[in-house]
Amino acid sequence: MELLSAVTTWFADPAHWAGPNGVPYRLAQHVGISLASVGIAGAIALPLGLYVGHTGRGQAVAINLANVGRAIPSLAAIALVVPFTQMLDPQLGFFLYPTLIAMIVLAIPPILVNAYAGVAEVDRDLVESARGMGMTEGQILRRVEIPLAVPVIVGGIRSASVQVIATATLGAIYGLGALGGFIVEGVAQRDDGRLFAGVALVALLALGAEGGLGLLQRRLSWSRNP
Amino acid sequence: MRLTRWGALGASLLVLLSACSTGGGTKPTVKIGSDGFYEAKLMAEIYAQALEAKGYTVDRTAIGIGARKVSAPALESGQFDLKPEYIGSGLAFYEPGKQTGDPAANAAELQTVLTGKGGGITVLAYSPAADQNAFVVTKATADKDHLAKMSDLTAMASDLKIGVATDCPTNPVCGKALKDSYGIDVANATLLSACDTPMVQALQGGTIDVGELCSTQPDILVNGWVILEDDKHTQPADNLAPLVRNSLLTALGGDKDAFEKILNDVSAALDTATLTDLGKQVSVDKKDIAAVAKAWLQSKGLVT
């Protein structure tokens, strides 16, 4: 109860809604870095996953690449790239790029694996029929495989998004701010209101992404399987 | 006649007893303990070897037993007798916010607190060596802007990129002290974990100009960085001092003064730069703590 009142008091303070350390700004930062990293990860992983799924070539490479990505702790990834990105830009190369890169690395595996598995699991008889009808390889991918694999592909984007939203909080350790800023400062300043306000915001955002993309996933499944 | 014989026996026994209490054979074993990180363990080892060189038997079981939450009650309950302590943080453990920028005041206040703990604990003389908050710049920045002390920052405070501890804005000895004493506003400072890797990396890569580190952090030595002198004494003084249980000092009897002198001589011979170097040998060069302690004690002629 004490914790709940600490959090509601914290949210009620208008000072916590203003400026670059306020809720709206940091929420926008968090949404921004999450969208950017999932977007870039998708641009890399989707074509790769579709290619591997369609051709069956390079499966081992793709799966191992994905597993390496999963095995790197995000905090270590951030710390490792900092010295290099700082050379590009001493400011953004410290506050933004390392976390962005670490989140891309985190988001690639689920997107890649789901795109690959979704396409690979399409009934081979359907693919052969399409080929028999005279479809080109590109047409088979676009008109047969992708439409059937779409729920699985969106599922990958969904789990990548939830992971990124939760993990992007680490960026605060490198001064990024975003919603992790409330958590890191809350711990250091022994301010439970601030800490759990940050936790609640991250949880709400993650649940929102999970729910929204889940809904999209279901809609796409229904439309293909009425 | 019989009475005199007994008297003679009693007298000779007394002579024997007093001879024992000042002789080498009955010096009590000194149980030394410390916090768990390398610098605390190193200090404990230095005091241990200095005592051994003067004929004391030392029990090292409690060296590195854990953070103050563990080591302070262990000292109070007599699980060990001697602990190297940081007088500012040690005081803050019992009375948060009481620590000041004046080491003498911190030591005196800590003594007041510890007199009532665990049957009495004595704070011996504190060393010039201190592991405390330090504001650090690179050599290049120091040369370019002619920086030597914190006051030098006041003129350039408005366009200064400074990295401070995450708790700084709400910590009176940080945010308020920097504003009041040096005119530095931490509202736009970069908040990072002080004395930690992100702060070091931020300073290394030029993300910040000034970073809050710990004064004996090996990174300062490794990178050749410059500590800006806290000329208005805003940061809590965290000099090292041995804490000794009064029960041990009483048991030492006539050796008490000599015992205290051994420890005080060691403390006096150490300074912050030396402690940084010794700590670097342990944490960066991965040298054995006992070997590092021995080499330094020998260089100072404190052990042979």
Written account of the structure:
The complex is a heterodimer of chains A (226) and B (304). Chain A has helices at 2-12, 23-55, 59-71, 74-88, 92-95, 97-120, 124-132, 137-167, 178-188, 192-224. Chain A is mainly alpha-helical and 226 residues long. The longest helix of chain A is centred in the N-terminal third of the chain and has 33 residues, at 23-55. By secondary structure, chain B is of the alpha/beta class. Chain B contains 13 helices and 10 strands. A 5-stranded mixed sheet of chain B has the order 7-6-8-5-9. In chain B, strands 3-10-4 form a 3-stranded antiparallel sheet. In chain B, helix 2 packs across helix 11 (256-269), helix 2 packs across helix 13 and helix 4 (87-94) packs across helix 5. The N and C termini of chain B lie far apart (53 Å). Chains A and B meet through helix 4, helix 5 and helix 9 of A and strand 7 and helix 8 of B.
